[in-house]
Amino acid sequence: MNMIVCIKQVIDPEAPPASFKIDPSANKVVPPPGVSPVIDPYAEYAVEAALRIKDALGGKVTAISLGTNQLRDIVKKPLAMGADDLILLEDEAFDGGDSWSTAYALAMAIKKIGNYDIVFCGREASDWNAGQVGSGIAEILGLPSVTLAKKMDITNGRARVERVTDEGYEVIEFSLPALITVSNEIGEPRYPTIRGIMAAKKKEPIIWKPADIGVGVSQIGSAGRRTKLLKLFQPVREGKCEIIKGETPEEAAANLALRLRETKVL
Amino acid sequence: MAEYKGVMIFGETSQGKLASIATELLGGGRKLANDLGQELSAVLVGSGISNLAREAIAFGADRVYVVDDPLLKDYQTDSYVIVMEKVVKQVMPQILILGQTAIGRDLAPRLAFRLNTAASLGCLELAIDPQSKLLLQTKPVYGGNAQAVFVCQSYPQIATVRAKAMTPLERDESRQGEVITIAAGIDPSAIRTKVIDKVAERVEGIRLEDAKVVVSGGRGIGGADGFKQLEELARMLKGAVGATRPPCDNGWMPAGAQIGLTGKIITPDLYIAIALSGSSQHMSGCSGSKTIVAINKDPEANIFREARFGVVGDWKKVIPAFTSKLKGLLAG
Fold first, then answer.
1. Which of B106, B310, B311 sits opposite A135 (nearest CB)?
2. Mean pLDDT across chain A
3. In angstroms, rounded to a whole number, what is the distance separating the alpha carbons of residues A138 and B131?
4. How many CB pairs under 8 A join A and B?
5. What average pLDDT does chain B have?
6. Are B146 and A29 in contact (CB < 8 Å)?
7. For residues A264 and B283, what is the distance between their CA atoms, to the nearest angstrom?
8. Is B141's Cβ below 8 Å from some Cβ in A?
9. pTM of the model
10. Of B81-90, B107-116, B244-253, which gets the smallest average pLDDT?
11. What confidence score (pLDDT) does residue B255 get?
12. Chain A residues in contact with B249 (beta carbon < 8 A)
C-alpha cells in the first residue's frame, strides 16, 4: 500500500489565546514569540491513519509539506512517527496561497510521485480552517474522495471508511486509488519513538521547487489565489464576569445558585 | 460574468422535511437577494423530496429547482457534484450558499473546484459589498482566534454557513413561487462510492442543539466518571451534557457531544462551563449562548473573559454543592 499524506507547519493552535496577535495592516498573524510552530494537528491525524494501514498491511508512507521557513525538526515529525519519506515543496513562490493554489501545487507533486493508493489529508488545517485542499486535490487528480473519515479498513484494494456525519457516521465503500480526509475522531496520533526520532534525524527531506513539479509561478502561491483576503481581525470580547465568592468552594457554589435564581437565569 | 444572476441556496432535507439549516439559509439568502435586487432560489436534491418545494417557497424562495431521483437517496460526493454542476450551469446563480454540515462541507469545495471558482467554508456572516456587489464572506480562522473576510471574484461565489448563523423567516403559506424540475440524468457508473450503512449515534435525553440548558465539561473533568456528575446536574435542569474536544478524543464522552469549531454549535439560554479553559476553538461552538457560567480553579482561564457569572474553585467541590442548592431552590 503506497500512501501520501499532506501535512503543514502551523502556529501552535494550543498556544494561549492571549498570545494570539495579528498585524492588521498586513492582514497577517504575528507568530507568538517563544512558541515553536507545530505540525498541523489535523494533519497528524492523517499521518496516524496512514501509519495504521502501514502497520496492518505494510507499504510506504510519504509525507509532503508545502510552505516556506519549514523548520526541519518540526516537519520531520511524520518521519519520527514512522513515515518513510518527506517531500518539501519549498519556495517563496508557494507562499501566500489559498486552497486553490495549494491544492494545485500538491496535486502536481502527487502526480509526480505517481505510484499511490491513498492520499490522506487532515479534515482542515488549524490555521485558515479552509477545509478544501483535500477535496481540491481529489478533483484535480480525478480521484474519488471521502471526507471526515474516522475509521478505515482496506481489503483487496477496496476501502471501507466510517465518515462522520451530523447524526453519527456512515460507512462508505470504494475502490482505490482515492483521497481521504481524516477527522480527529480517529483518536490520538502516536508519539514518535526514540528509534523513530533517530532515524528521522538522519533522513534528509527531498526538496521540490515549482519547476520540479512542472508548475508556473502564476498558478501557485499568492499569484494563483482565487479568493482575496479583505480583512483579518480579532473579535472583541466583553469580559465582565461577576465572580461569585464564598468562604469555601461549597459556599461559593450555593451563592452562585442563589445569584442565578435572583437574576432569573434559572 | 454578467449573465450570472440571483442567489441560490442548497436546501438539505432530513426525514421528509426541510432541514433547519435549509430554512436558516433561506432566511439569510432572502436578505442577500433583496440587497442585490435579485431572485432567491433553492435547489432540493434527493429522492422523494419534490413535495418539499412548496415548503421552501413558504420560507422565502422565489423559485425552487427540484432534482428528484432514486440514485440521489444517499448523499454521495460524485452524484451530488454532478447534479449541482448541472444545476449551476443551467441556472447560473451569482451566489450559492450551502450549510456547513457533513454534506455541505464535502460538496462545496469539490463543486467549487469543478466549476473553476472558489468557496469559503464555515462562514458566520454573509453580506453584499455596497460598491463591488461581491459577497463578503466572514469566517472564523485560526481556530476562532481571528475572523477573516474573503471575497471571490469568480461566479458563482460559493459559501457554506454555520448552523444558527442565519435566522429563518416566518413560515408563510401565501408566499408565491415557481417550482422547476431538473432531471438528474446520472450515469450510475459515475458514482464511485457506495454507502453501506448509516449509524445514528443518539445521546440519550434532549439533543444538545435543542437544549435550553447545557452543562459542559473539559479536560479538567478527568474521566468518564466525572461526566456522570455533570449528567446529574443536566438532568435536574432538563438540559444536555456537552464537552470540549479532549474528553471526546479520550473517549470519556461520545464524539457527538463535542462543542466547538470541530463539533456542534449550540445557542442555549444557559451554558455552564465546567473545568474547561475556554479555548477559542471551543468558544466558537457556544459563544452564542445567552448566559455563560464558568466554574474553573484557574482564575486566569480564558472562560472567565467569556462568562457572565463565575466561581473560581475545584469543580469537584463546587458542583455537588451547586447541584444540591439548586435542587432546593427549584423545588421551593
1. B106
2. 95
3. 36
4. 261
5. 95
6. yes
7. 24
8. yes
9. 0.91
10. B244-253
11. 85
12. 184-185, 187-188
Nearest to B217 by CA among B315, B147, B312, B300: B315
Contact A241 B237 (CB under 8 A): no
Of 3.30.1490.20, 3.30.930.10, 3.40.50.620, 3.40.190.10, which CATH number belongs to B7-190?
3.40.50.620
Look at the alpha carbons of B104, B107, B111, B112 in this order and tell me if their dihedral is positive or negative.
Answer: positive
Please check whether the domain covering B208-331 is classified as CATH 3.40.50.1220: yes
- Please check whether residue B314 is in contact with residue B298, taking contact to mean a CB–CB distance below 8 angstroms: no
Locate the chain B residue with the closest alpha carbon to A142. Answer: B114
Q: Do B195 and A172 touch (CB under 8 A)?
A: yes
Of the CA atoms within 13 Å of residue B11, those in its CB half-sphere come to 35
Residue recorded with cell 431552590: B329
pLDDT digits (tens, 9 = 90+) for A39-53: 999 999 999 999 999
Strand, helix or coil at B213?
A: strand
Residue in B245, B313, B326 closest to A266 by CB: B326
- Cβ of residue B314 closer than 8 Å to a chain A Cβ: yes
State whether B318 and A130 contact (CB < 8 Å): no
C-alpha cell at position A48 = 496516524
Does the distance separating the beta carbons of B270 and A266 come in below 8 Å? yes
Task: Order across the sheet with B135-141: list the strands.
Answer: A227-233, B146-152, B135-141, B125-128
CA angle (A203, A208, A209) in 5-degree steps: 150
Residues of CATH 3.40.50.620 domain(s) within chain B? Answer: 7-190
Task: Give Cα B77 to chain centroid, integer Å.
Answer: 19
The ipTM is 0.93
How far lies A76's CA from each of A65, A137, B127, B140, B274, in Å?
A: 10, 23, 42, 29, 37
| Alpha carbon distance A82, A61 (integer Å) | 8
CB contact under 8 A, A174 and B193: yes
| A90 inside 8 A of chain B by CB | no
The residue whose grid cell reads 507533486 is A109
Distance from CA of B167 to the nearest CA of A (A): 20
The answer to whether A264 faces chain B, any CB pair under 8 Å, is no
Domains, chain A, in order of start with CATH, read: 2-224 (3.40.50.620), 236-266 (no CATH)
Report the distance separating Cα A165 and Cα B225, nearest Å. 27
Residue B295 near residue B275 (C-beta atoms within 8 A): yes
Does position B208 have pLDDT exceeding 60, yes or no?
Answer: yes
Distance from CA of B226 to the nearest CA of A (A): 17
Angle ∠(A21,A23,A24) on CA atoms, nearest 5: 115
**Residues of A with Cβ-Cβ distance to B329 under 8 angstroms:** 257-258, 261, 266
* Residue position matching grid coordinates 469537584: B316
* B125-156 residue pLDDT tens: 999 999 999 999 999 999 888 999 999 989 99
Beta strands at A21-23 and A28-30: parallel, antiparallel or unpaired = antiparallel
Closest CA to A230 of B71, B135, B220: B135
A172 touches chain B (CB under 8 A): yes
Look at residues B224, B221, B271, B217 and name the one whose alpha carbon lies nearest to residue B244: B217
